[in-house]
Amino acid sequence: MRNEPSSAQPGRRLRLTRRGRLVLIVVSAVVVAAAAVLVPLLLPKETTEKKATLVVPEGWRASQVYAAVDKALDVAPGTTRKAAGAAKLKLPADARGNPEGYLFPATYPVDSKTTPTTLLSYMVNTAGQRFGAMHISSGAQRSGATAYQTVNVASIVQAEADTPQDMGKVARVIYNRLAQGMPLQMDSTLNYALNRSTLDTTASDIKLDSPYNSYERRGLPPTPIDNPGEEAMNAAVNPAPGGWLYFVTVAPGDTRFTASYEDHRRNVEEFNAKRRSAGNGG
Predict the structure, then answer these.
(1) Rounded distance, CA 74 to CA 110, Å?
(2) Which tens digits make up the pLDDT trace of 198-228?
(3) Which residues contact 268 (CB under 8 A, 6 or more apart)?
(4) Contact in structure between 175 and 277 (CB atoms under 8 Å)
């Protein structure tokens, strides 16, 4: 608060309004014209600013994060994507400048000083702190993978697991298939290539010419397919023990893991039957 100046002239007095602004109350009609000039000079500059946040959920793709940042900062669509390409983000060399997988899911503060570059840097730096821990590096080595490949596995786990409890098993399926030279055959990688999210994969879909088509290509996709959270990352670092090679979520909360292809086919048939029944209103 500002106190009344001792030099205030007789016939005038200063007081604070309910908003804390100092205004001149004119008692004498003679000085009305002067008051009109003085009032703007005595108004203090506004210092309050509304605080906002941006929530990045687990499993969002970089494209979704870019669109959300554009909206949160009220900038033209595509601005954040361009900033990501130009920014010098602290990414591992394997990422080759692509932040997919390292836009860490969290709640971020946003204010008038926030830019797409500063916000992306905040996300990547947070991922570096969470994913660069010693136990992650040692876990990656146990799996015969690099830290970047482990983030890649975690991104698939994030997309494929029906529940957090399933994540360790999904990670184990991925490692088991990689160890046996089997294609991963994950719908999530194919959906990433097609920029969609669906449970329906057609025969033509799996013929797509893309490095993200894990039906046709062996090994991991060239980059992560989303931005995983810590649970998925921990599953990739410490997969559950087991010999599973297949899994399918027959119903919510009911994911079947098996090493037998015949068992898997029966599980898939049950899944398809349930979907047909649901589509017919049964």
Answers:
(1) 11
(2) 777 888 999 999 999 999 999 999 999 999 9
(3) 248
(4) no
